[in-house]
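Good morning C.,

I know you're traveling, so I'll keep this short. The sequence:
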Amino acid sequence: MEEEIGVVEHYFNHISVAAITLTKGSLQVGDTIHVVGATTDFTQPVHSMEIDRQQIDHASPGQSVGIKTTDRVREGDVVYKVTS
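The tokens, ready to paste straight into the viewer:
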């Protein structure tokens, strides 16, 4: 199962980091995310997150976080948290 938790606001190509705004759910290090868009579709674990260049372990709805991604994402891609 998957639960929609946010949307990609920006992608920093040179460092492979997605700026994701959490809209509906929380996210923590160790969770698995699934990113889906017109040309995007991949799943990856969250190894680390940052807010304003500070490492965090947990983020709540309304926060924007930076997550290093294994593949390119695009603005507007939807982010889901994979649940068992």
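Safe travels,
E.
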